[in-house]
Hints:
- The chain is an alpha/beta fold.
- The protein has a single domain, classed as 5-stranded Propeller (L-arginine/glycine Amidinotransferase, Chain A).
- 34% of the residues lie in helices and 17% in strands.
- The protein contains 17 helices and 15 strands.
- The strands form 5 sheets. Strands 2-1-15 form a 3-stranded mixed beta sheet, with helices on one face. Strands 3-4-5 form a 3-stranded mixed beta sheet.
- The longest helix is centred in the first third of the chain and has 17 residues, at 36-52.
- N~2~-(3-carboxypropanoyl)-L-arginine (SUG) binds next to loops.
- N~2~-(3-carboxypropanoyl)-L-arginine binds next to loops.
Amino acid sequence: MPExxxxxxxxxxxxxxxxxxxxxxxxRNQGAASSPRSAALQGLAKMEAVAALGLVQGVLPxxxxxxxxxxxxxxxxxxxxxxxxxxAKEDPVxxxxxxxxxxMWTANAATVxxxxxxxxxxxxxxxxxxxxxFHRAIEPPVxxxxxxxxxxxxxxxxxxxxxxxxxxxxxxxxxxxxxxxLTASAANGGESRGVHFFVYGAxxxxxxxxxxxxxxxTRSASERVAELGGLDQACCVFAQQNADAIDAGVFxxxxxxxxxGNMLLCHELAFEDRSGTHAxxxxxxxxxxxxxxxxxxxxxxEDAVRSYLFNSQLLTLPDGTMALVSPWECSENARVRAAIxxxxxxxANPLARAIFMDVRESMRNGxxxxxxxLRVPMTSEDLAAVNxxxxxxxxxxxxxxxxxxxxxxxSLRAEDLADPALLRESRDALDELTRILAxxxxxxxxx
Length: 447
Ligand code: SUG
C-alpha cells in the first residue's frame, strides 16, 4: 500500500503576519488581508486531488487560536475578551503569534518512522518542537494529542512528545520537513524497508553556518529523533543543508529537495557537501536510487524559492509510477516548467506526470503542497487500526467543505484577531470538527 498523506486543515485565523524570519514569502506578505475560507477550500481541493489518484488521504485538525492559555501564562488576566483587548493594545505582534494558523503545515508536525524500520516493530511519531519560532513552538502539545487521537492503537503506534527545546545542546527540530524516507523501489509504503535521510542546518562541528537567516534544524535533534524512533544507525544518513541556500530563503530542506521511494529530486545547491551526501545516500540506498539534480543554471535558487518547485509532493501512484503535485506557481515560471518537463521525459527516473494545484493562500506564507502534508507509510493492517473518521472520502470532503463554508470568514485583517467573536467562532468551529473527525477533547478549551 503506498504511503498515506495527512494534510493539515487550515485554521479559521489564517493570516499574514510576517512571523517567520528567513521565510521570504512570510516577510513579503506581512500585513496583507488573508482569506481563511479560500485557504481551507484550497487545502481540501488538494486533498481531493490526491485521494482521486487512488491514495489514502487523511486530515489533521487546526489548533485553537488565538491561544489564550499562552497569553495567560504570560500574565494577561481577566476575561478572554479583556485578555485579547490588552494584548492587542500592548503587543500586537504577540497577538499575531498566538493567532497563527501555522499548524496547517503538517510536514512540521512530526517525524514519522514506520514499523518496517524500527527496533520494536511499531510506527513512531516524534512531535516537532519547532522551537526556533515562538508562534510555532506552541504547537507540539496539541499536535501530539491529535496524533494520539488518530494513531491510538499502542500495539502499532507510538507518539512521542517533542524534544525538550534547549538543554546543554540545542535541539531545534522541525519534523518531517527535514526528513526523507527513501526505499529500494518506487514502493514507499509500510511493507518496504527504508533509509532515513535527515538534513540539518546547524551542528556543533559545522564548517559553515548561515550568516543571515536561522538554521532551524540541528543535527543533535535529528539524532535524538532517530534514537527515539528506534532506527538502526545503518539506515540513517545525516547531511548538512547548504548554508547559502538557507540564506537565500530555504528555511527547511523541503524547499530545496524532495524524495520518495527510489527517487530524490534536489537542487545542485541543496547540501553543504554535495558529492559526499550523494555518495552516502547511494551507499545506504543502493544502486536503484535515482538522484535527479536540478542545476543552478537551469533553475536558480531564487526561482526555486519563489516557485517552490521542491516543495512539490512526489507521490507513488497505485500503478507504481510517480507523480509530482506542484504549486501553480511552478507552471507560471517557464524555467521551472521546462525543468519539470525535462525530468518527466527522462526515462532514467520514475516520474511520469505533474499536477499543478492552487494553494496560493498557503504559499503566501511560505507553505507549498509538501508543507501541507505529513507522510505516514503504513501497511493495510496499520491502516485498519487508524481512526477512520480522519481519513477522507467523497462524503467526508463534502462535510468538511460545508463546515468551512458555515464557519470560516471570507477575509481577515490583523485588527480582526482581537475580536472576541473570532475566538468564539473558532472554538465553536473546532468543537464541531472534533466530532466530525472523532478526535475527542484535544483542545485546551475543551478540557
Ligand atoms: O514555519 N510559515 C511557516 C511555513 C512552514 C512551511 N513548512 C515547510 N517548509 N515544511 C514557517 O515558516 C508564516 C506565518 C506568518 O508569517 O504569518 C509561517 O509560519
